[in-house]
Amino acid sequence: MAMEPLSFQEYICSLDPATLPRILRICSGVYFQGSVYEISGNECCLSTGDLLKVTAVALQKVICEDMGTGQTTELPPTFKGIFQPAPRGPVPEGSRDRGLTLQQALGNGQPQPLLCRALGPRALLLRPVYEVHAAMDLRRDVVKIPSTLEVDVEDVTAEAQHARFSQPLLLSEVLAMAHVLPAQAEILEGPAGPTVFQSSWVPRLRQGQRLQLHGCSGAWRVLASAPGRGRHFLLTSTYAGRLRLRPRQFTGVQELAAALRPGRALRVVVTQDCEGRGLHVPPLGVGDRLEAVGLQGHGPGTRLRCHRRSGEEEEEEEEGEELLLPLDLGGSLVEEARSSRRYGLGELLERRALPCDVRVVAPDPALAQDALGTLPALRLEARLDLPFLVGSFCEEPEQGFEVPPRWMDCSVLLRQGPVRPAPPCAPLQELTEAFYYRLLAQLPPSKAPPPPRPPKPAKAGVGPRGKPPLAPRSPGPALMGACPAPPALPQRSISSLCGQRGCPRDADPGSDSSEHDYETIDDAIQKTAHKMQAIFPF
C-alpha cells in the first residue's frame, strides 16, 4: 500500500539507506507539465506520474541555522564538532555524557535544537542536503537530484517493484555489445556534429526512426581524394573496381629512398638537370633513367645505390653506370611506369605504400554509377581501421548502410522484434568537404621523410656534365639539395620542356638582354623527349 505524499526533502531525511532501492512516484510540484529542471548541468524533465528508482543517497552538506539570530552557515559532511541536545529538545539515551557526531545528530530525521561549543553558545537547527542517485525511464545516465527539490513524492515500491526502466544506449555502446545483436532499435536522438556522408540515408537518422542493427562490419576503409576536383571518398575493402597505378613524383633522393620496398627496385626518370658534387656525385641530366636498388652505409654517410642508363641508350639489358647518391641531394624525378596492370584495392595496398595516385580503369560492377570511374586521377591517402555498424531501415530492409559510431553516434532504444539477414552495403561513400578536413586533422602525422638539407652551394658557371647551365637562375624559394623543386609537370609539360625549338645560352654580362643567342636543340635531345613520352602511359 502506497504511503501518503511527502515533500522530497522530508522523505529523503527519513529514509533508511538499508532499504534501498526504493521506487517513488512524482505527485506534484512547482513545475508546469513537462517542465525541464537543470540538475548538475544536465536537463531533467520531471512530470507528474514519473517514476524514480532511488539507488543511493549521499550527504552533500548541512545547513546550520542559529535559532536566536536566524543566520545560517554550511557545514561539510566531515565536520568534527560534538553536538549536545538543547534544554526547549529530547535527550537521546547517553547523549548527555558523550555527545553526538554530525551523522548521529542527523539520524533522528526531524530537526531538533542542538548545542555545539565549536559553533557558539546558542541553540542550532540542522537541515541536511542530500544528493539522491536515481534511475528514470529513457534516461541513459543516473540522475543526481538534490533532496531540496520542491516536489511531492509517494513511495510505490510495493506496487511497482517489477517496473522496468528502459535505458537508452549510444551506437558506440551497442557496437561493443555483440551479445545483443542483431536487434531492432528506435532512434531517440540523431547524430550531432557536421554531416559526414553525402548519402540519402543520412538525413533519415532522426528521432522516431526504427532501425535493424545487424552487427559489426569487418571491412577496412581507404580515404581517397580527386586532386583538383574537391571531392573526397571513403572506399571499403569490398570495392571491386580495378585500379591502375600512376607514376609517382619525387623531389629528391630522400623521397626516392623512402619509397623503396624490400626486394623491389624502383625505376625513375630525371625530369630536370641536377648539378653534381665533384667526382663522387656526378651530375644528372634530363632523360637519365635511374634504377634505385637499396641503401648503402649508415648514419650521415648513407647513400642510395642506383644504376644509371642514359635516355639515349637502346640496350635495356646493360647494367649501366653505378651511382651512390647522398640522401640530401635534391632533384625532380618521375617513376617510370611500364606496366598497364590492373589491381584490386587490397592487392594494390600490398604492393604500394600510401599515399599513392591511381586511376579507376574499370568501375565496380555492383554500383549502378561508380563516381570514381569518371575521374582522371584518384589519390589514395590513408587506410582507416575503424569499427562500423551495419544497419538498415525497418521499412526498407533490403538496402543496408554502414554507420561509423565514432563520427555519427546517436542515442537508441533497443526494441523487441525480428531482424532480417544483413543486406548488401555500398562499397563507396562520398564525404562532405567539411568533414574531410576535420578527418585529416584526426589522422596520425604523415611518415613522409623531412625535406633534405641543402648542400653547400655549387660553383657558378658549371652545369650538368661540365656544360654551362641552360638558363640563368632567378631568385626564388630555397633550393631542395642542389636543384630547384618545381611543381609537378604533366606529360605534355615534360615533352615541351625538351621539345622547344631553342634554349637561351648564358648571357654575356656586357651584352643587351634582348639580343641573346639561341642554340638549336640537337637530334639526340629530341630523341630523348620522344622516349620520355613513351615511358609515361598517362
Describe the structure.
- The protein has helices at 8-13, 95-98, 102-106, 171-175, 253-258, 345-351, 433-442, 491-499, 523-535, and strands at residues 6-7, 22-29, 36-39, 42-45, 51-66, 72-75, 84-85, 114-116, 120-135, 143-146, 151-155, 169-170, 183-189, 210-216, 221-226, 231-236, 242-245, 249-252, 266-270, 289-296, 303-309, 321-326, 330-335, 356-362, 378-384, 389-393, 396-403, 411-415, 428-431, 502-504, 518-520.
- With 538 residues, the protein is mainly beta.
- The protein folds into 3 domains: 6-155, no CATH class; 171-217 and 387-442; 247-336 and 479-500 and 520-538, no CATH class.
- The strands form 6 sheets. Strands 1, 2, 5, 6, 7, 8, 9, 10 and 11 form a 9-stranded antiparallel sheet that branches.
- The longest helix has 13 residues, at 523-535.
Structural class: mainly beta
Task: Tell me the domain tally.
Answer: 3
Low-pLDDT ranges = 30-35, 460-522
What do the pLDDT scores average to? 79
Query: Which geometry do the CA atoms define?
Result: elongated
- Alpha plus pi helix count: 9
Helical content stands at 10-25%
Total count of strands = 31
Keyphrases for this structure?
3 domains; 538 residues; elongated; mainly beta; 6-stranded antiparallel sheet
